[in-house]
Specification:
Elements: H1 8-15, H2 29-50, E1 64-68, H3 76-81, E2 85-90, H4 93-105, E3 111-114, E4 124-130, H5 139-148, E5 150-161, H6 165-177, H7 194-203, E6 206-217, E7 221-225, E8 231-238
Parallel strand pairs: 1-2, 1-4, 2-3, 4-5
Antiparallel strand pairs: 5-8, 6-7, 6-8
């Protein structure tokens, strides 16, 4: 029997943001700011994993990609433009409807599904899940479901906030107080440390091969960093 990992309260919260998702100045503005850094790192990891030409415009043509917790498609669409055959799954049907409509407007053939990751059929060369694991009811079951969807020789890419005093101050107290993210988006006690994520990956038969932080400073703003205290990205493969 499939373990339910969707938290209905979280699904309702993010579904309520659906109409605003593609507005770079709306309630999902922080995701639009994060996306370029995440995409650059994703491209770097993909190039390294499959020894791809970093000058190629569509380097992952012929490969399948899954974005778990896809929201309204902010990552699915760039992956499709890089050549992948993309499936996006999300807990909120409202997000899936917006994602499908936006993709159609961009003439991108992306498959969108509402529901649990574990309910999807097939496997994927690239499995991504950005800022999602901290919102599920059972992180171990969620990582296990992602691992089940990873094809032999595939690559998994995850991102999540770290559980530190800095992330509590920056991502919860300040970000929500000043409207940088919608109130109720983050629950600090559900954040996952790199050590905890490594254990979850190992439990699913995966091993981490790369890690990078996303930090903020007055001089640089948001940027990729070796500082993992706020938010971090992880690449993993089968052990």
């Amino acid at each position: 029997m499939t373990t339910i990992t969707i938290n209905p309260d979280e699904a309702r919260h993010f579904g309520s943001l659906a109409q605003d998702w593609w507005d770079p100045k709306g309630r999902s503005a922080m995701l639009h700011r994060l996306n370029p850094f995440r995409l650059g790192w994703i491209r770097e990891q993909v190039n390294q994993h499959w020894a791809l030409d970093d000058r190629a415009l569509r380097p992952i043509t012929g490969k399948s990609a899954l974005d778990a917790g896809c929201g309204a498609g902010l990552l699915c669409e760039p992956l499709a433009r890089l050549g992948a055959t993309v499936t996006g799954v999300d807990s909120a049907p409202e997000n899936i409807a917006i994602a499908a409509d936006h993709a159609a407007g961009q003439r991108l053939a992306i498959r969108y599904v509402a529901g649990e990751v574990a309910a999807l059929g097939g496997q994927f060369d690239l499995v991504c899940s950005m800022e999602v694991i901290e919102h599920v009811t059972d992180p171990a079951a969620f990582v296990g479901a992602l691992a089940d969807k990873l094809a032999p020789g595939g690559l998994m890419l995850l991102s999540t906030p770290n559980r530190t005093p800095l992330s509590q101050a920056g991502l919860v107290t300040l970000a929500e107080r000043f409207g940088m993210v919608p109130e109720g988006t983050h629950h600090w006690d559900q954040f996952i440390t790199p050590e905890e994520l490594d254990a979850l990956l190992a439990g699913a038969g995966l091993t981490r091969i790369a890690i990078k932080g996303i930090a903020w400073s007055p001089a640089k703003g948001l940027h990729l960093s070796d500082d993992l205290r706020m938010n971090y990205l992880v690449a993993a493969v089968r052990a």
